[in-house]
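[SOLVED] Need 3D model of a two-part complex

Original post:
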Amino acid sequence: MMELPLVDATLNAFGLLVSGDADLWRIIWVSLKTSVSGLLLAAPPAILLGYLVAMHRFRGRRIAIWLAQAALSLPTVLIGLLLYLLLSRRGPLGDLQWLFSQPGIVFGQCVVALPVLVAFTLAAVQGLDPRYAETAVALGASRWRVMLRVLHEGRFGVMAAVLSGFGRVISEVGCALMVGGNIEGQTRTITTAIALETSKGEFAQGIALGIVLVALALLMNGALMLLQGDAHSARGHL
Amino acid sequence: MSISIHTSISAAVYENENVPLRDERRKALLGVRGLRKRHGERLLFDIERIEIATHGAYVLTGINGAGKSTLLRVLGGLERAEIDSLRFQCDDVLRVHPYPRRLREAIVYVHQHPILFSTGVAHNIGYGLAMRGVAKDEIARIVREAMDWAGVAHLEGTDPALLSGGEKQRVALARAKVLQPKLLLLDEPTSNLDGAAREQVIELIPTLVEAGSSVVIACHDRDLIGLPGVQRMKLRDGRLEYR
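Solution:
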């Protein structure tokens, strides 16, 4: 029986990370691959959708905004359940044979990221000064070029949308567990592995994976901050 | 307060007056019949006709809330309104919505408080040219000239967010001028400017007409209203009066 389980487990966790434990790194790789793929697939249509809803008046616009914002609160485990039913052998998408496979997780991460990306992009574009779009239009930009200009001017908000989307997909456990099935070496991700290891009492591996999760979050946010460039303080130059 | 303006619009237009220019000047650039704008149930204005001549300079006056900005925005294709008929350069424009490409390339609206893209001063001025597919070298040359014209050459490396109101207005005028628009719609270009900044902006306006644009300026500024050669339009009680 351990007297200081947290300290011991954390020390062991660093040991595992440094020794290059193959199982551990495979889990990290699967997690990163599926999260980034899901995010990259979801981002272009979601950003486009968020932009279009923010910029245009149409019948049902408020309902679209309401649904996008409400979808933020959907538990990922419920999304996982719905996708499980869709992807199971007798489900409408059963022929794809994506259940308990990496493409299944990628599909799930796409669906999980979509509302975050849409709602945050919508808020970012809606909060932007309308003169940006009007100026681009007045100077003769096509619809496509107006969109690029507006998204560029609102890049801090759009990047925040992408970062939030990444945060949601890398940290969610429900959907990855239900759609992926937590198969060792195949569909075991950081979060599903932490859940499993903890239930087995293997705290060291769980903490090691937790450390990696935090490190990934810091790295991704750092990289995107570099992409964003320097931001003016909201207080201006006071 | 009155200021001295060395270049008057009439001088700019008539200095080298010759027969072709005089003939061109008589031509109507833009003619609108029956222009109505509603905000919900409220009728903001109901204008029987608007005539803008080639190389014409106009000021549009009216009390706050009369709809001056809205009228300019409608003419500039940024807001919709009911329009019975519209002629541009003697051709009937059959569909006004969506705003036709031909009008978009010929008519440029400049905001009361122009906003600059966060990229850079030169990029802002060259933006419209890039949208028209002008070659990069050519854009660089035109932008350099325009920066000299607007007196903003020294601001090339400055973050646009750090420019003063007058500097932003001059960059916005240069950004519109490089497109050689047939019609420039300036929404209160000197509001909130004073002293040298205001004087610099006022001095640029006659040279826009000289460069070949018709200009409509919504304003309260007496020095702009009093510029020689400028025709006055007043928006009152939803009607447009020519003075």
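Edit: The mean pLDDT of chain A is 90.
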